[in-house]
Amino acid sequence: MRFTRLRLNGFKSFVDPTDLVIHDGLTGVVGPNGCGKSNLLEALRWVMGETRASAMRGGGMEDVIFAGAATRTARHFAEVSLQIDNTERLAPSGFNDADTLEIVRRITRDAGSAYKVNTKDVRARDVQMLFADASTGAQSPALVRQGQISELINAKPKARRRILEEAAGISGLYQRRHEAELK
Ligand code: ATP
Ligand code: MG
């Protein structure tokens, strides 16, 4: 599955609607400190179903909503949309009948997150599973956060194992087993 477009609206420092077309090959994002490079990667992680506010460098998930600046008032919602080229039909069944997938996550203050895939309402878990099965999940080692390399080196064996399991593409199975055990 290839990411082709990332759109942000009210997400962190991206207060105005921002539309990024992702072309084939390597994409670099350059800019001065604090311009929002890490925020972009977090938007990607977030739209894939990340539930840990700490992974967004926030105390609560609503911290991803633009919090206001000297000349701009705070926003009430944040939305990120990720477009995926699915012409090779690599998406899991249930999502695999369209050439393009558009995943949208929106958070509203006091109302939490809502997700859509191709305009249809879905659960957070559906989106997480979509990416876990495609082994590019929100926690996938394919998305390497600033400081994550040293975290990996210092990680306890259990945490390191989880990362290896994602790399092996079995985290979807692992999550299903965990859910089965809870039943
Ligand atoms: P560096 O090169 O230092 O890693 P960066 O380009 O990765 O910088 P980010 O960490 O993505 O920069 O962006 C940080 C900026 O985002 C800060 O100016 C911070 O105030 C702003 N920011 C983060 N969350 C919000 C929010 N909820 N509302 C408004 N601005 C925010
Ligand atoms: Mg950064």
Structural description of this entry:
By secondary structure, the protein is α+β, with helices and mostly antiparallel strands. The protein has helices spanning 37-47, 124-133, 148-154, 157-167, 171-182; strands spanning 2-9, 18-21, 77-85, 100-108, 112-117, 120-122. The longest helix has 12 residues, at 171-182. The structure holds adenosine-5'-triphosphate and magnesium ion. Residues 37-38, 146 line the site of magnesium ion (MG).
What labels would you give this structure?
binds magnesium ion, binds adenosine-5'-triphosphate, 183 residues, alpha+beta, Chromosome partition protein Smc
Helix and strand arrangement:
Layout: E1 2-9, E2 18-21, H1 37-47, E3 77-85, E4 100-108, E5 112-117, E6 120-122, H2 124-133, H3 148-154, H4 157-167, H5 171-182
Bound molecules: adenosine-5'-triphosphate and magnesium ion.
Number of strands: 6
Largest sheet: 6 strands, antiparallel
Number of helices: 5
**Class from helix and strand fractions:** alpha+beta
Q: Which CATH-level-2 architecture?
A: 3-Layer(aba) Sandwich
CATH topology, what is it called?
Answer: Rossmann fold
What fraction of the residues are assigned to beta strands by DSSP?
A: 15-25%
What compounds sit in this structure?
adenosine-5'-triphosphate, magnesium ion
CATH class: Alpha Beta
Function: Required for chromosome condensation and partitioning.
Subunit structure: Homodimer.
Family: Belongs to the SMC family.
Binding site for ATP: 32-39
